[in-house]
Each structure stands twice: as C-alpha cells, then as structure tokens.
Amino acid sequence: MKKKVRWSKYCRVLKDDNYKGYIVLYHILNMELAYFKEKHFNMLAEGLNSSITKKEVSPPPQQVYEITNLKEEKNLWKKPGINKKEDGNLEEAIGDLKSKGFLVEDDENEDDMLLSIRKSIEENVSIKNLRLLITENCNLGCDYCQIEKNLKSTRQINMSREIALKAVKLFKDNSKAEDLKTIIFTGGEPILNMEVIREVVTYCSREMNNCRFIIFTNGTLIDKNIAGYFKNNNVFVLISLDGPGKVHDITRKTKMKKSCYNEVIKAIEVLKAVGSKIGISAVVGGHNIDILDTEVFDFFQGLKINSLGVNILHYLLDSDIPHQIDINSYADKLIKIFQRARKNGIFIENINRVIAPFINKEIRGRECSAQGKGITVMPDGTVGTCKTLLAAGVIGCPIDKFSLNDNEMFSRWKKRTSFSLEQCDGCMVKSLCGSGCTYDAFVLNKTINSIDDRTCVITKRFFHFLVWDLLNILREKYNDEFLYLIPTVEERKFVMQNIHRDNKLKETVGH
Question: In degrees rounded to 5, what are phi and psi of residue 14?
Fold first, then answer.
C-alpha cells in the first residue's frame, strides 16, 4: 500500500504579477526551486487536494503562499497524465517533487531535518580569520567612520610587535592546518603601522600553511615601495573609495577637511602598475545612492579592479547614521548594479553573499566571521568577536587571559545563526541571509539574539529578483517549452553570466 504524501511545511508558492501564468515552488531548507506553468500546477494542486493560503506580506508585485493538503487528502495524484515534449507528465512531476523534498510522506517528521541543519551549522565551524586592528590612528577624518565614532577613548595607539605576534600565535593554535586562513589588517589606517604588518607577514609566511593576507586601507599612503611589497607578498589590497571625486570628497576627507581623492587614484594606478590585486570598498549613503548604478558604477568599471563591495553604513552606538538612506532604495540599486556587473564580468562581494548560496544550494547560516569563524584583536591586545564593539569597549578579553574554548562571548556569537533566532522561524530566506549583522542587531535591540532587519529586506528583495530572473533565462534557453523545470546548479549559474568565480575571495571578509 502506497503511503500518503503531503506538501512539505517548508514549501512555499511564489507568484509575481509581472510573470502571470507561472508558479514557482521553493523549499526553505534545501533551497530547491521548481518552475511550473500555472495552469499545469493548478491541475497538480487539485489532484493533490491542496489548499493555498497567503503566507507573508511581500512588496508588490511578489506574493508568497503556503501550500498544504486538505484534511480529506487523496493518496496520490489521480488525474491522467498530460503528455509534453520534454519531461513526461504531471505524474512524473510528483516523483520529482518528492525527490526534492517538496512532497513528503505523511508520517515524515520534518523537524528532524531542521534540527539537523541547526546542529550542523553550530558545530561545523572553525576559526579561519584573524582581524588585526593594527592601529587606532588614521590620517583621514571620514564623516561616517564607525571605529572613530565608537572608540571608547582618544588614545589612538598602534599595535606593538609583541601583541601582534601573540595574536598570530593564538590564531595558529586555534585554527586548522588544512584550512585556508586569512589575516586581515585594518584600523584606523593600517599603513601607519607598516613595520608590524611586515613582521606579521614574515612570521605567518614562515610558520603557517594556507595563509593569505588582506589589507583595508584608504590608499593615501601607498607608494611604489609599499605597492611592490604587497604584490611580492600576495597581500590583497581593499581600498576605500565611494565613487568619482565629487562623490568621494563629500564624506572622505583629510583631518583638515581637504580632498584625498587624487591620492587614492594615484595609489590604485601604482598598485595596478606592479600587478597587485585590488578591490574597492564603497560605502553607500545619501552622497552617492542616486547615481550608484549609473555614474558611480561607470567610474568603478573604468578602474578595472578585481572586485567591488557596495555596502551600507553600520549603525552607530550613540548617534544617528550620517548620510542614511532608505533600505528599499538600496536593495533596488543593488539589483541594478548586479545586472550591469554580470554583463561586464565584475565581481561584487556583498551581492555574492546571497547569490553563491542561491546557486550552490549551500546554507549560509552566518553573515560574517565574528559569528564563530574569526578572532579580532585590538592594538592593546584585547580579543573579541566584532571589531566595532571591541573598539567601543562593549566586549573584550585581555589576550593573556583569553581561551577560545572557555570564552562565553565566543560561544554565544557562534550560536547566533538564522537557524537559532526565533524571529527567523518560517522565513523564506533563512538559508540565504546568514542572520544579518550581529552588531547592527545589537545596536537596534540591545541583544545579539535578534534580527538585523535591513539584511532581511535586502535578502528578500534580491531573492525574488534571482528567482524570476532565472525563470526568464530558462524560458529563453528552452524556448519556453517546459511543463515544469527543476533547475540544476549548472543552470542556476546562468544568473552570473560573465562573472568569473576566480575573481571572488574564497571566504567572505567584507569590503
């Protein structure tokens, strides 16, 4: 006797007013997609005696529905099959939907799957990143600098060689030899402490395997010698640049309120001349949002850099965000930027955080390395998870007293995932969002066990775009001649177009 089947409680039905005649099924946990012509899906739903109800409020034109079986459900599909050119009939579709988890046996306990995923995310985590706030000093006075505005004192010290090497040894002792390990130099302006950077690079290159280096810099102090050093030691350089001069100089100036744009451009030219790998980290705010996908993107494209990040400002602990923008407008701009970037083969780091798990169907439970994958060390040797909360003195432990296995702070941050937060229960994009920024959630709600609502908006908007954009691509590729289609990973990669994955950083470090 065949067992009854029912719709998975993690299955959602997506509709969009711009794509009338089509239905999309999406599985929240395994991220499978199934595209149907609506008339054929309705026949299948009727055959399975289904009930479709509105699940959540979404911005027009999208709608999200939950699908369940009525109490008097039938055992299996009873309608005669409908022949089609490519994939058999709707009875075959039921078999495919069962294999992908959209349909499950009536007595299956789906909570076991959820608990297994949560356990795997919490346990399968290792330390891969070391973030060294190599100095608190900076030669610029940017309007929105979260470190300077949140810094607990005005001391502005440099990290000593002794502290730096203690930090590296701590990192080495708590990381796995086989993992790719990332040392990130940040500040302040890290080049103001170039001597200690050289010490760290020399030590790690000699004592550690599978190690790479990334430096976040404003670029104004880079000369030919420093550029050559970065090239020779495989230091990936991320330069802060918000757009062309008229935009950049609104927010990023010297301490004397003078332009620094020409120095930044000169640094990029010097780095390119020696063959160094360069990324741009752009902050998006009121100063550049209106022309972000046009003039600003044209400018970045002309620089011919390896990767780009276009991120919104983090919240500040005790003051309002300068140059604040509407999050929906930002999400719309990200989509437009991506549409242009993929035509031109430009890798955009923060957008890839959503695209990569969508394509590969790999759950992204954490937003950043602060959630159990990294160690951050301040110039005075204070160790913690998040550099901004460390700088503000909200969290931290002296390096000589720090033990990763016994540190309650690290344990709590490691456990914060999109599968541990109650507010994420049932959310359609919980496998994609990484639970958002822990710092921003803390500032908003005074607890890390809460959501970063801006990331929710961005992820949902981008997810809807990807779902329907992929449908467009598949309709064109297969001449719209399918009754239903469950795209493979290779087919999902079509959304990347000309973006080559060898441009990407193998581990998200943020731009």
Answer: -110, 135
